[in-house]
Amino acid sequence: MFGIGIDIGGTNTKLVVVNRAGKLLAQERFRTEASKGPQAFVKRLAAAVEGFRRDYGRQLVSIGIGAAGDVDPERGILRFSPNLGWRSVKIAGPLERSTGLPCSMENDANMAAWGAYEIEMERKKGNILALTLGTGIGSGLVLDGKLYHGGTGSAGEAGHVKIEPDGRPCHCGGRGCLEAYCGSYAIMARARELIKNETAFIKKFAAPGHEKFNTICLTNAAAAGHAGARRVWAETGHYLGRGLAALILVLNPDCVVLTGGVSRARKWFMPAMNKVLGAQQIKTPFARVKIRVADNADLGSHGAALFGLDKALK
Ligand SMILES: [Zn+2]
Questions:
Q1: By the number of CB atoms within 10 A of the CB, which of 60, 100, 271, 290 ranks highest?
Q2: Distance from the CA of 172 to the center of ligand 1, in angstroms?
Q3: Around ion ligand 1, which residues have CB less than 5 A away?
Q4: What is the reported pTM?
């Protein structure tokens, strides 16, 4: 039996088909294009699911979705997504009706946390905090083998924890949020302040065929010794350390798993992050916690697929 996992991000939407062990069988990805509206998006999703059904038929038993934003998992509603600009959007219900498959929806970082628990930690008991470092920042918690939702399903909105009073503006409308410093849009905004000749920078550091001013380009520049790029990553690490320190003090996790595109720059932001963690006064939780970057770059979609399968087969 196979499950479909869907990860709805601010920029891209990823779909995977996995078996119960989390092995990837098929995948697809398309641009989310949030500005075209949620109805067009659900239609696009249903078409992609149909494509998988032609290949796998009745072996497909469930759909699990992780969406970037505040999700009501009981009703399958995306209540608010700052990075998609959507409010009160029904996704799970319409997709369930059009595909006939049971469909669950959770916050994307919750699904990454579930993926970390099932794949990275191989279902070992313990407390896991997963941080998704992408366009925005999310977090999810699996406590003793159970996904933690909190009172309203909103647990883990770590991206909007305030780390700087009256700091930089955030996509949520607030100021000084962790995401306003460490989300990829914020990192690149800071890079723009420091790197004056963007065109020359892209020409020199972007991967061939991907001439874009993005975090990959910024990572390549840091590796080549570019002082501005290294400074941006060090600042990112510093602020990430502030946010993570607060989370570790409150939650005392056994393991923190970092995932998402920005986590690929670990070499450049982790020293500054670890410096902040090492400077905390209450030492025990910091001495104990294991911080790792996920090997699997698609924990969100894999986690969603495994979570959906788990629910459907219970
Ligand atoms: Zn915010």
A1: 60
A2: 4
A3: 160, 170, 172, 174, 177
A4: 0.88
